[in-house]
């Protein structure tokens, strides 16, 4: 069960310096190797690695890089999505805190592969410390010639800038991120065209997650096939950093080979079991956007395809565990309040529907629910699901539909009894 | 031309057109709010849902499981579009329900009632009942200046106004602040609207959120008679529609003309009908500022011109028919008189005309400079040596400096104002643009005809009648 770990052993304050990276992590060796490869070879290696996007969508990274046109009248860009706003997710933060050079090296290689000379790291505004640490690492890299002009004598120029967000979950959506980067309101764009065709400042752009880009040096150094082998399932390579929070005895980040553990493994073997040794009530497997699972469903392998088959998703690999001390009605209300607050307001179903769902759930939670409310709630969620301009609407509708269906008796108790059965 | 199937019917289309436009050409209505053919596509309102299918590699049509927004989907060869399937109807009902959650039931007091997209689409595609029983969100309204009245509670956040300002009027003044359900459309720093095209905000707003202060609470939309007409404000000749009831002009809206004004009107053109709704307008024959009758006034006019070197001035705000008639009758009005045209100071000919801004306005502030110049009438250079003037104007042409001509030797016929003509020998009141039929030629050499919308005030006469009376009046002063 012990897969080779790539990150966890370096998650400490000592590791972030460039010296540590060069000496203890074989830093910037992959970059040197990449410069001797062709762009197509690099992209093929990433395809072979079966690296799936680590931001939440799980799109194969190699395939995404292949979408960039070879020639372009406008400059191309590589953008790192460090917005990490999916509730329950905190793995990218540690990568940026402790191993920032993995990200930097990954971005230089990525820029080289797609022909971009400018990279942006869009980091959520709340990560003030991490932005500072990133800038410090970038300064180190510039000083030693790993960024800037003619990197390590390769003839390749690459500049990297950290751009801070200002507290909007929607700016984690790649086209809203690009709008925000350009100084506009952080609102998603109509697609097509997709960022690989028209992205930042009108040029072809690839947007990748922090962890996805940080894996690139490993892939180039030891090969795509090796990376793919770290994962136990087909088409899902590498290790996964999983953010585990909630009612477990040992919350935090764990690192496992992709598809090598079940949810039960994670909770009971890696995280010490349920807090207070209480009964497990619910598990939200992939950040709050992922449909909830009951305690009977935790024997599923924790990876992209198995979770999708179960009607939920791995998302940003943020596992939130709930024991029976907590009211699921209150939990769903709080989750729905988040989406209503974060909605950008462009499209009708999300702007109006999310707030409506929040209002209904608030009433139900406080004992003012009506008999018809549950049916109406499901219908509203159905009217939002798949009908919005971006996935935030789906992210709001999914939890409502799954919680109300799987914990129906809890909601009915609130409506009929006027209070929580837990209390 | 490529073909697609809309509701089972084969439709030809121009490559690149979106499904809303293609369906419209085929006579199929797809409801919209945020979509406007003159503005960029944002696909935000989610009203224009359709089901779309495209032929796969094997030639069989695969329907896309999710509903698509017709405004942002370009029609392609062999595409199958369903605009009223059960799925589409449910999606339309859902959008209408969402839009009406927070929309106040203002119809009884709202100007937009009767011509409101929200009302129309709700009636055709929505439900007749309400499931929502939560508290509605409200806003405090901003005063946006003299043209537009803002009612933010009624706004459905289609962002047409924001896009119009930025893309057409060239001024990013309408903006969205806050986000999500609290999004508010306002102006930057709460300033008043600056653009000279502000009236268009009220045209494009699909609800009663942005309305014209000038028309507020005047008339119900369905009471108005609508007559297509041409703007007389400048040499562009924008197409408009004048709305009136019981012979009173109430407001103007633009008519679509892709070659002249596309979908827009400037505020000057939109509101200048108010200029003649003015007690200052001369509506009975006048002699030296005092009310008179036609026989006396015409007799006095003839007297003022007799034996003097006369210039006959034709305003370029008159119709081509009027100008032609004056030119042909000139020798009978004042034998030996020279005929010139006048209009906008500094813009004496078509060659001197040009664009006055980046959108619609032209330098010549009259509608028919081109038409009248084409008749061979020369521009007025100066009045030196002239002793008497007979000026024909439609209300827009600016009277030239009279130089050595005494006002008591000036006769005016047409639309004139008492405050400017009280010293003239005689004023013979004529018809304004909306009170007559005729044609004008714009700067693109397009001749445009318009018909009478309302009757003139009782005392005013058409130019043809004034001229014929003049010519046939016998020496004793009786017609």
Question: Helices and strands in order, then pairings?
Answer:
The complex is a heterodimer of chains A (423) and B (479).
Chain A: H1 18-24, H2 29-35, H3 39-48, H4 61-66, E1 77-82, H5 91-98, H6 100-114, E2 118-123, H7 128-143, E3 159-164, H8 174-181, E4 205-209, H9 210-222, H10 224-230, E5 239-246, E6 252-257, H11 263-270, E7 280-284, E8 293-294, H12 304-309, E9 318-323, H13 328-342, H14 348-365, H15 373-384, H16 392-406, H17 408-417
Parallel strand pairs in A: 1-2, 1-4, 2-3, 5-9
Antiparallel strand pairs in A: 5-6, 7-8, 7-9
Chain B: E1 3-6, E2 9-12, H1 19-25, E3 49-55, E4 61-63, E5 68-69, E6 80-82, H2 86-101, H3 117-125, E7 148-150, H4 160-168, E8 174-177, E9 184-187, H5 199-204, E10 210-212, E11 225-230, E12 239-245, E13 248-254, H6 267-271, E14 286-287, E15 290-291, H7 294-305, E16 310-315, H8 320-333, E17 338-342, H9 369-374, E18 378-379, E19 388-393, E20 410-414, H10 418-421, E21 426-429, E22 438-441, E23 447-450, H11 463-472
Parallel strand pairs in B: 1-6, 16-17, 16-19, 17-18, 19-20, 20-21
Antiparallel strand pairs in B: 1-2, 3-4, 3-5, 3-6, 7-10, 8-9, 11-12, 12-13, 14-15, 14-21, 22-23
Helix pairs in contact in B: 2-3, 8-11
